[in-house]
Specification:
The structure holds 2 protein chains of 2 kinds. Chain A is of the alpha/beta class. Chain A is about 40% helix and about 20% strand. Chain A has helices spanning about 15-25, 25-40, 110-115, 125-130, 155-185, 190-205, 240-260, 280-285, 295-310, 330-345, 360-370, 380-390, 395-400; strands at about 1-5, 50, 60-65, 70, 80-85, 105, 135-145, 215-220, 225-235, 265-275, 275-280, 315-325, 350-355, 375-380. In chain A, the strands form 3 sheets. A 6-stranded mixed β-sheet of chain A has the order 11-10-9-12-13-14, with helices on both faces. Chain A has a two-stranded antiparallel sheet with strand order 2-6. In chain A, helix 10 (about 330-345) links the parallel strand 12 and strand 13. The two termini of chain A are about 65 Å apart. Chain B is α/β, with parallel strands linked by helices. Chain B has 3 domains: about 10-125 and about 270-300, no CATH class; about 135-270 and about 430-485, no CATH class; about 315-425, no CATH class. Chain B has helices at about 10-30, 45-50, 65-75, 105-125, 125-130, 135-155, 155-170, 185-210, 220-225, 235-245, 250-270, 270-290, 300-310, 325-340, 345-350, 355-365, 370-375, 380-385, 410-425, 460-470; strands spanning about 35-40, 85-90, 95-100, 390-395, 395-405, 430-435, 440-445, 455, 475, 480-485. Chain B is globular, with a radius of gyration of 26 Å. The N and C termini of chain B lie far apart (about 70 Å). Classes of the chains: A alpha/beta, B alpha/beta. Strand 3 of chain A pairs antiparallel with strand 8 (about 455) of chain B, so a sheet runs across the interface.
Chain lengths: ~400, ~500
């Protein structure tokens, strides 16, 4: 007799042992992750294999084999042919070969992040996105109940007219009948009373009755989250040191992950600015430094140009801006104007000030603008990146904000 | 017979039906006796878990299993190992895993291979029958997992890890070779046993403490002359578990868990070629018969053949021989020798020409292990077909000393059997003596110095032993003395 048991729902149990393994080598995994992050593309959100060191194995003792090995599939060697030995002892072929070298361990994107941000508790990216699904309120006919703000006057009056027409119609028929009788043969006292009642009722018909009320109906429909473009905007003036760029890169990576979870296609665009702005590829984005002043508006101008020329329409736009907050004083008004306008068609603009204690110019400027979809943060050091990320991307409801 | 499966997808009903047809062939034609089968549908992640826990479905957690799992997972991602095949637990009932992503043909193949091939091998091969108690392994593993987790909670994960690391390092010397182990029992009974052993240990410690004379007294000198243990103990872990002086009982229980699981796994080491060969022969026979009887379409049978061929090959010139490959070839050839022997084979094998080939195959499968199986049954034809050759070690280089031929196949066969014997042998280390009344040093001696030199992490392993013993440990091997000092 055989039995079939469906065990699939009980899930995987390998996590505990993998966790122990990673705890054991967390230091070297962390090193490897940091190294990897230096060169990795922020728009690549897959998991990673990192190699972990020798010595991570259980010790073994064996003895040198004195039995001659037998090989198979020998289609070329003859008796007397010689082969030189490789440098390794061991009881060859017993399947322990991999014990000596480094091995690779696969880190899921979540595990990777945990090492990158050193155990800081990260927001649950996937879950958030389900909650944060953008919605459109689309018209869907009319309802008989609703809030006064949604009252549809035209519809309501139509209903009222129809009702009055119908009711007077009923009354008119009876009145005409009674009046005709009155002329021909006169009415009984009872009929006369009925006629007066009807005439009175006819004039007293309510202008708008409760049954006439019609409200606009709106239904939540998920907004088609299909395509998004993310503008990475970074200050590349001389004051942006490697440390600051590293902070910016971490932040951008996190934000990109978050956005990437919500759309089928996400296109990154990289814009650098100092005295003026250039569109560039990812590699130069993190490796270019320019001298001269810092004219932030040039970056936003270029974004607007690119947006108008290549995106718009059904694209969802995001701007992720990182800078140490310096700006050419005369430029502030222009920045405000551009950001206000761009905020109108972007899903979100996020600004992170990196490597500065206290708020610098841009931080003050943006905070003062108080636009609902302009998120502002400041990360003086590594550990602040995640904290600021969490603050800036807190659920809309928690934050009590409405997003346009 | 109607087609067992409509298409590549399967339903539970189809699986039940296919199992019935497969069992009919297994029982009527191959006369297989098996444990009842329990087929478990699992995901690929669960399959990875099981692979990583040395093939056991429930396992206590330890980083080394995480390491294995990471390696399997990487292989899987790279498409190196299909994981499509089977995983089966030597237990009663016999637990077989069917991965959900397998096609219907693969499921039939796995049912035949594991559910009837391996299953009958577990039930009837002497090494499993006499060496392992299959009844309660799953219960025992669940107990072990819970016990380890409990210890981690009580004493902290780090110290539990240290004990397990040490016990794992010594697990080759935690097996009773040739002795039938105590049967594994149900969880409740196991827990009662723990209590009993704890009392036992308390009594023994008392004895150590109370009877301890001053190390300098003449009596002590005399006592040291009496060796303890009286005869060298080959199960080092067992000895430490029973006799370590400064060891809390939960540590003893952890060692015992490692020991017993190793004991359970041990017969599998010496019979990979036979076990896989037998299961592969079984699935090949059954799948072919299903096709002949109309249960598999031509297309489905072709799909099966593709999978089968991939399993029974070894690529390139190599000394790591795929056990499926060698085992399948040998069993297939034993059947041929029954049905269609050459003149030479009639002289060499007394079963040549035997009409009842099923009996001959069962005899071969059930009464040997890899080494003796090869010595008895490897024929000139298989040696030639597999293009075997012997390499001889000339220190700096290896030289081909024999290639397959009429005259040399017996020598090749002997060398191959020796090789399988050698793989099985762990260095013969035994507890030689404990300085019971002196510094309590544990002295381990190697008893097969005539074999090759000890290799690997000798000192590290010794340190693990010293950690468990909690006094100094000495190893005398290859004319040298290695010493691990506690606290060092």
């Amino acid at each position: 007799m055989s039995y079939i048991v469906d065990r699939r729902s009980s899930g995987s149990t390998g996590g505990a042992s993998k966790k122990k393994l990673m705890d054991r080598v967390s230091k070297s995994i962390k090193e490897k992750v940091l190294q990897d992050f230096q060169t990795r593309s922020i728009s690549d959100v897959t998991g990673r294999s990192v190699s972990i060191p020798k010595g991570l194995r259980q010790p073994r003792v064996w003895h040198q084999s004195d039995a001659d090995p037998v090989i198979i599939n020998n289609d070329q060697f003859k008796v007397g042919d010689r082969m030189w030995k490789r440098e390794s002892g061991g009881k060859g072929g017993s399947g322990q070969g991999d014990l000596e070298g480094e091995m690779e361990i696969y880190l899921s994107p979540e595990e990777y992040l945990e090492f990158l941000f050193d155990g800081v508790e990260l927001p649950d990216l996937v879950k958030r996105t389900e909650d944060q699904e953008d919605v459109l309120y689309a018209r869907a006919g009319f309802t008989k109940s609703g809030v006064p703000a949604n009252l549809n006057m035209v519809r309501t009056l139509k209903q009222s007219m129809v009702r009055k027409k119908m009711l007077t119609g009923v009354f008119n028929d009876e009145i005409a009948e009674l009046e005709e009788k009155k002329e021909k043969e006169g009415l009984t006292e009872e009929e006369e009373a009925r006629l007066q009642e009807l005439l009175e009722k006819k004039t007293k018909l309510v202008f708008i009755d409760e049954v006439d009320l019609r409200y606009n109906n709106r239904e939540e429909q998920p907004k088609p989250n299909v395509k998004a473009v993310v503008f990475f905007l970074m200050d590349c003036s001389g004051s942006m040191t490697d440390d600051k760029i590293d902070l910016a890169k971490r932040f951008m990576f996190l934000v990109f992950l978050l956005i990437q979870n919500r759309y089928k296609t996400v296109k990154p665009e990289f814009i650098l600015y100092a005295g003026n702005a250039v569109r560039t590829d990812e590699e130069s984005f993190f490796n270019t430094r320019a001298g001269g002043g810092t004219v932030t508006s040039s970056g936003y101008e270029l974004i607007e140009q690119i947006w108008d020329a290549e995106y718009g329409g059904d694209w969802n736009g995001y701007i992720i801006h990182a800078s140490d907050g310096d700006n050419y004083g005369m430029d502030d008004d222009r920045v405000m104007e551009l950001v206000t306008r761009l905020a109108g068609y972007m899903q979100m603009i996020a600004y992170l000030e990196v490597g500065m204690f206290g708020a610098n110019e841009l931080h003050e400027l943006f905070t003062g603008m108080a636009l609902p979809n302009l998120r502002v943060g400041s990360a003086p050091g590594e550990e602040d990146v995640v904290k600021e990320f969490k603050n800036m991307f807190r659920r809309k409801r928690d934050a009590g904000q409405v997003q346009g | 017979m109607d087609l067992l499966f409509k298409d590549a997808d399967w339903t539970a009903d189809e699986l039940v039906n296919a199992d019935g047809e497969i069992r009919r062939i297994a029982e009527d034609e191959l006369r297989l006796e098996t444990y009842p089968n329990q087929f478990e549908l699992i995901t690929y992640e669960q399959m990875l878990d099981a692979y990583a826990s040395v093939g056991l479905p429930v396992m206590y957690s330890h980083w080394s299993f995480g390491r294995l799992r990471a390696m399997e997972e990487k292989g899987y991602r790279q498409g190196k190992n299909g994981l499509a095949y089977e995983l089966v637990i030597n237990s009663n009932p016999c637990v077989n895993y069917l991965m959900e992503t397998n096609t219907s043909v693969l499921q039939a193949l796995v049912i035949a291979h594991a559910g009837y091939g391996h299953n009958s091998f577990f039930k009837n091969n002497y090494a499993f029958k006499d060496g392992v108690d299959a009844s309660f392994i799953l219960d025992y593993l669940a107990y072990a997992k819970a016990y380890v987790a409990e210890c981690e909670k009580k004493y902290g994960p780090k110290i539990v890890e240290n004990v397990l690391d040490a016990a794992h390092a010594l697990k080759d010397w935690g097996v009773d070779y040739g002795k039938r182990p105590q049967p594994l029992t149900k969880k409740e009974i196991e827990e009662e046993e723990v209590k009993r052993r704890e009392q036992e240990a308390r009594d023994r410690l008392l004895e150590w403490e109370v009877l301890k004379p001053a190390a300098t007294s003449p009596d002590a000198q005399a006592d040291e002359e009496i060796r303890w243990p009286e005869s060298p103990e080959e199960n080092i872990l067992y000895f430490v578990e029973k006799n370590a002086l400064n060891m809390p009982n939960w540590k003893r229980e952890l060692i015992r868990i490692v020991r017993r699981i190793e004991q359970y796994l041990h017969p599998q080491m010496g019979s990979k070629v036979m076990n896989e060969g037998w299961a592969t022969f079984t699935h090949y026979y059954i799948m072919t018969r299903l096709h002949e009887k109309g249960g598999l379409s031509d297309g489905q049978y072709l799909e099966f053949l593709r999978s089968h061929t991939a399993v029974v090959q070894t690529r390139g010139i190599t000394a790591s021989i795929n056990p499926y490959h060698l085992g399948f070839n040998m069993f297939t050839d034993i059947r041929r020798i029954c049905e269609n022997p050459t003149e030479a084979e009639r002289k060499e094998f007394d079963f040549a020409g035997e009409k009842d080939w099923v009996s001959v195959l069962q005899y071969a499968a059930y009464n040997f292990r890899d080494e003796s199986f090869i010595r008895q049954f490897l024929s000139a034809k298989v040696v030639a077909d597999m293009q075997m050759a012997v390499l001889t070690d000339e220190d700096d280089y290896m030289e081909i000393s024999h290639v397959a031929s009429e005259d040399t196949y017996k020598e090749v066969r002997k060398k191959l059997a020796d090789r399988y014997l050698d793989i099985l042998r762990v260095p013969d280390l035994r507890v030689y003596k404990v300085n019971r009344w002196g510094d309590r040093r544990l002295i381990v001696k190697r008893y097969d110095d005539d074999r090759g030199k000890l290799l690997g992490d000798v000192d590290l392993t010794l340190r693990h032993l010293a950690y468990l013993w909690s006094y100094d440990v000495e190893l005398i091997a290859d004319g040298e003395s290695h010493i691990a000092i506690t606290g060092g």
